[in-house]
Specification:
The chain has 305 residues and is of the alpha/beta class. Helix content is 60%, strand content 17%. The chain has eight helices and eight strands. An eight-stranded mixed sheet has the order 7-1-4-3-2-6-5-8, with no helix packed on it.
């Protein structure tokens, strides 16, 4: 009887151990939190983009947790994603949980973008969801942009080739040949001119010295002119404006007296009778002088005592 009881006890203990081991193994295979070392956070998404349970939760390049479950709400049309995160990590409650690509094959995971809040998200808390382009989408966009630029480059190259073909066509070939001949002649003339200039380098040097001397003389002249202008400016500044006005007033008065027909100068300038009398007198004097020169004895008598 005791033996039977011992056997049943052993079988019962063995069954309990197997059940516990099975529970632990199943939870371990499901990446469950056996020893309560994780806490849960949730986020909602309109499009999961291929996100699956057990997908990694990445924080600063490290796997901090995994997707524990995904539920779909028919009324809102949103997916609620629950993540199990190690208690070694805490995130601000304004952080974002975005869907991202984890490899070049397009495998999806969640990436924690930390916020600026000083309050940590609690167990069972909710973060804002989001998504960012994965590597394939970014690469596809880059390839599309590169293809567009390559197409534009090919179009430009095609246009350049067409222009070159038209330039070297039968119609323009003669013009191109003539242009090349003219360029060759121009090069020859330039070379001849260079040789001529090289043979007369001393004359050019003398000419350059003359120019330098002329420039020095012009500089000296300009300095003298500047000094003269400065002296004139000083004299002008020293002259009293009232004195200048007084001189101008006196000059105007003199001009008025000269132009006055009743004055002496006015009569001399405007009455020609005096001019005619003087002219007649000078004519008579001139005639008398000529007669004296011709016959001095008639007009001059000298008596000697």
């Amino acid at each position: 009887m005791n033996w039977k009881n011992n056997k049943e006890l052993k079988i019962g203990v063995f069954v309990i151990v197997v059940l516990c081991a099975s529970f632990l193994v199943i939870n371990y295979l499901r990446n469950g939190d056996i020893f309560n070392r994780e806490y849960e956070i949730t986020a909602e998404y309109e499009d999961l983009q291929g996100l699956l349970p057990s997908a990694p939760v990445i924080y600063r390049g490290y796997r901090a947790g995994q997707v524990a479950g995904i539920e779909y709400d028919k009324e809102s049309g949103m997916f609620s994603v629950t993540c199990s995160v190690s208690r070694d990590f805490t995130f601000p409650d304004d952080s974002r949980l975005v869907i991202t690509g984890t490899d070049i094959m397009g495998t999806k995971g969640l990436k924690v973008i930390p916020g600026q809040s000083e309050t940590a998200v609690p167990d069972g808390g909710r973060l804002e969801g989001g998504a960012e382009p994965d590597m394939i989408a970014s690469l596809a966009g880059s390839v599309t942009s590169l293809a567009s630029k390559l197409e534009n480059t090919l179009d430009s190259l095609d246009a350049v080739v067409g222009n070159v073909n038209r330039l070297f066509g039968e119609k323009n070939r003669i013009s191109v040949e003539r242009t090349l001949e003219h360029l060759e002649k121009t090069a020859s003339n330039v070379e001849a001119l260079s040789e001529a200039i090289g043979g007369k380098s001393e004359e050019f040097a003398a000419f350059a010295e003359s120019l330098n001397s002329l420039a020095a003389n012009l500089d000296s002249t300009l300095n003298m002119a500047g000094n003269a202008v400065s002296d004139i400016a000083e004299i002008t500044a020293a002259v009293d404006p009232q004195e200048v006005a007084s001189v101008l007033s006196s000059f105007r008065s003199l001009l008025g007296s000269i132009q006055d027909p009743d004055g002496s100068l006015g009569l001399l300038m405007k009455d020609d009778s005096l001019y005619r009398s003087l002219d007649s007198l000078l004519t008579d004097v001139n005639s008398l002088v000529k007669k004296i020169e011709e016959n001095p004895k008639k007009y001059i008598r000298i008596s000697v005592f």
